[in-house]
Design a protein that fits this description.
With about 160 residues, the chain is an alpha/beta fold. The protein has one domain: 3-Layer(aba) Sandwich (Glutaredoxin). About 45% of the residues lie in helices and about 15% in strands. A five-stranded mixed sheet has the order 1-3-2-4-5, with helices on both faces. Helix 5 runs parallel beside helix 7. The longest helix has 14 residues. The radius of gyration is 19 Å and the shape is globular. The N terminus is likely disordered.
């Protein structure tokens, strides 16, 4: 009986497209995504100045797109989709902070990681035009149109009250 159950489990594992070895190796072999549809910048300081001047919120994206499977999935399933782009371009300043594979991030990136308490990638932090954190997101499989609605709604939230 154990042999039968083990055979069934192995068969399901091998034929299930979402978890088989072929899919995992395909995801890990994907080239870094460039999210060509979004107007990314990596210059956080300039983006914060522009956000203040134009009154736009910041979509701050911490990623390891050359090595992080979940970052690649977020780019492919959300950032690179027309539905997301059409709803968000012009409503955010898009800042991408790339964490390098196999080496320590620069001091500037370390400062941002500490300032925003980033514990892992991908991490998206929505900032008000004056730099206050409004919301935070991680990868979650969903429709890009729905994700766009979530981040747009988050950008309209009032900043949290400071603790005294």
């Amino acid at each position: 009986m154990r042999w039968f159950l083990a055979s069934v489990a192995a068969s399901l594992w091998l034929c299930c497209p979402s978890v088989n070895a072929e899919t995992l190796s395909k995801d890990s072999a994907m080239p870094p995504s460039e999210s060509p549809l979004l107007p990314w910048t990596s210059d956080f300081d300039t983006a914060t100045d522009t956000a203040k001047a134009e009154g736009l919120p910041i979509y701050l994206y911490f990623t390891g797109s050359s090595w992080c499977i979940w970052c690649k999935k977020m780019d492919r399933e959300i950032h690179n989709q027309d539905a997301f782009r059409q709803k968000t371009v012009g409503k955010f300043l898009f800042v991408k902070i790339e964490l390098p594979a196999g080496s320590q991030p620069s001091e500037k990136i370390k400062t941002l990681l500490d300032a925003y308490h980033v514990q892992g990638v991908p991490s998206v932090i929505i900032l008000s035009s004056d730099g206050q954190e409004l919301a935070r997101f991680r990868y979650q499989q969903m429709n890009p149109d729905h994700y766009a609605d979530l981040v747009l709604e988050a950008s309209k939230l009032p900043p949290p009250l400071e603790k005294s």
